[in-house]
TrEMBL record:
<dbReference type="Pfam" id="PF00293">
    <property type="entry name" value="NUDIX"/>
</dbReference>
<protein>
    <submittedName>
        <fullName>NUDIX hydrolase</fullName>
    </submittedName>
</protein>
<keyword id="KW-0378">Hydrolase</keyword>
<dbReference type="GO" id="GO:0016787">
    <property type="term" value="F:hydrolase activity"/>
</dbReference>
<dbReference type="InterPro" id="IPR000086">
    <property type="entry name" value="NUDIX_hydrolase_dom"/>
</dbReference>
<dbReference type="InterPro" id="IPR059176">
    <property type="entry name" value="UDP-X_N"/>
</dbReference>
<dbReference type="Pfam" id="PF12535">
    <property type="entry name" value="Nudix_N"/>
</dbReference>
<dbReference type="InterPro" id="IPR015797">
    <property type="entry name" value="NUDIX_hydrolase-like_dom_sf"/>
</dbReference>
<feature type="domain" description="Nudix hydrolase">
    <location>
        <begin position="106"/>
        <end position="170"/>
    </location>
</feature>
């Protein structure tokens, strides 16, 4: 889900055709991974009911490296998972892509960092999008805590490495 989120966010923000193609490819790879994981879960679940949850994990791929079958103790005549499962995921994920901020794949949680020094000064940056002076801010990315995002945003926007001390507000 994190990989798909990164791809959908990229699709929402990029203006470059080349980058759109790369993000779409990443989205397809994420769907292949999700479909293979789903097939493995089904295989493990079906075998655990028989008392035979062990066995050899097998994955089959076509000549392009796309997973075509996955499971525990896959038999030579096993049908594997439907190739359409990954395609359905891509279709569902693509529907969620919007433009700009609407395309940012997150619960729309933003963070801001109030960074001070020993002289009692507060760090402000001039926003590239509006020209307004403000403390460093940014959208929270999927899979990262608020403190991790704060550290990342301050580093990206100022080059300064910070250590969060406390949460001020939610």
């Amino acid at each position: 889900e994190s990989l798909a989120g990164i791809a959908r966010t990229g699709l929402g923000f990029t203006e470059s055709l080349f980058e759109r193609e790369r993000y779409e490819e990443v989205l397809h790879i994420a769907a292949d991974i999700a479909a293979a994981a789903q097939a493995l879960r089904r295989s493990i679940t079906s075998r655990s009911g028989t008392g035979d949850a062990g066995g050899t994990w097998k994955v089959r791929a076509d000549e392009n490296g796309k997973v075509t079958e996955a499971g525990v103790g896959v038999q030579e005549d096993a049908a594997g998972f439907e190739g359409g499962a990954a395609d359905a995921l891509v279709t569902e994920w693509m529907r969620s892509v919007g433009r700009g901020v609407a395309g940012y794949v997150t619960p729309k949680v933003a963070v801001g960092a109030v960074v001070g020094n020993d002289a009692g000064e507060i760090l402000l940056i001039q926003r590239a999008d509006s020209g307004i002076w403000l403390y460093p801010t940014g959208w929270a990315d999927i899979g990262y805590s608020a403190s991790e995002v704060v550290v990342k945003e301050v580093k990206e926007e100022t080059g300064i490495l910070v250590e969060p001390v406390r949460l001020i507000a939610v």
